[in-house]
Specification:
With 126 residues, the protein is α/β, with parallel strands linked by helices. Helices cover 40% and strands 12% of the residues. The chain is built from five helices and three strands; from the N terminus they run αβααβαβα. Strands 1-2-3 form a three-stranded parallel beta sheet. The relative contact order is 0.21.
């Protein structure tokens, strides 16, 4: 639910997804609210003018790169990563230009994912 870099929730979710894929599990992600921005193509690393460091020195990953790496891991492991961005949330934020592999969906997709799953984890912001 959290936008990139707003809290540890996004990083925690990405680590859990990585672990599940690495162990050979298929994973469905339903990103909503600010989390639809996790996969935006326009994300770019930046220098830090306060510290006086370059982009290379900062080595600051973007969430789109993390998610791209998760898609690659799923492919390497022969499992599925199904990443769905909530269309209602996307429209509210104008957040529709995503990396490859992400698709638009709605609350019904979340319900379908829950129904077919043998385990569900929801990470809310509050």
């Amino acid at each position: 639910m959290d936008a990139p870099y707003e809290s540890a929730n996004s990083t925690t979710a990405l680590r859990i997804i990585h672990s599940a894929l690495n162990q050979g599990h298929n994973v469905d992600v339903f990103a909503y609210e600010g989390a639809v921005n996790l996969t935006m193509k326009e994300q770019a690393p930046h220098a830090n003018s306060i510290k006086g460091t370059t982009i290379e020195e900062e080595n600051h990953p973007t969430t789109k790169d993390w998610v791209s790496a998760l898609f690659k891991l799923a492919w390497e492991k022969g499992v599925t990563l199904n990443w769905i961005n909530c269309g209602l949330c996307v429209d509210e934020r104008g957040a529709g230009n995503w990396i490859d592999g992400v698709r638009r969906g709605g609350p019904a997709d979340f319900i379908k994912s829950v129904a077919k799953s043998d385990g569900v984890l929801v990470i809310p912001t509050r």
